[in-house]
Amino acid sequence: MRQIFAGAILAAVATVAVPTAQSNMSLPEKFTSFAVDMSNTAPRATATPFDMTIDRWSTDAERDRLRNILKEKGQEALLKALQSLPTVGYINTPGSLRYDLHYARQRPGGDGGRTIMLATDRPVSGWEAFHQPRTIDYPFTLIQLQVDRDGKGIGKASIATKITEGKDGTIELENFSSEPVMLNDVHPLK
Q1: In terms of Cα–Cα distance, which of 95, 183, 110 is closest to 143?
Q2: Beta-carbon neighbour count of residue 84 at 10 Å?
Q3: Angle, in degrees to the nearest 10, between helices 60-73 and 6-13
Q4: Single pTM value for the model
Q5: Quick count: other Cβ atoms within 10 Å of Cβ 86?
Q6: What is the DSSP string of 119-131?
Q7: Rounded CA gap, 57 and 103, in Å?
Q8: How confident is the model over 95-135, as pLDDT tens digits?
Q9: Number of helices (H), then strands (E), in the chain
Q10: Which are the contacts of 68, defined by CB distance < 8 A and separation ≥ 6?
């Protein structure tokens, strides 16, 4: 299964430069939402609070470096490079430890809103690391938020995905699950 999740990844590691506003002046930014797992691996759809904090935006140089590594060396090298970047924020759900984000970018929208892209490596359990099931080939977590000027909107999260470059130069995500996690009722936390 291949799914093009172009909005999040193209802005993250696109080959075409897009004007972005990466000012760190109003940080940290905190968002909350309700995550609904729509995959065929979930027994039924349930909504879980999902919080995201952005402490700084990734630089153009970090974006360019990741893009070049993916193009020249592939997914495994991209994973190592992403893991080596400084923490830019974190995500968490109730009752869980926070998980560090290593990449955060935003792109202005036409209506005063914006698209926010977040990326990190995926948490891997000790059992998974030892037994190396198929899921180990899906090491990335990617989040795309579409928010209006007030920070309210929707989003998608691909919790376990593989990243490859398509024949036409676009970045493709191969989801282990059939659908991403939907992030409903995204809004800022004060």
Answers
A1: 183
A2: 8
A3: 100
A4: 0.77
A5: 10
A6: EEEPP--HHHHHH
A7: 7
A8: 888 999 999 999 998 789 999 999 998 766 677 667 776 66
A9: 4, 10
A10: none
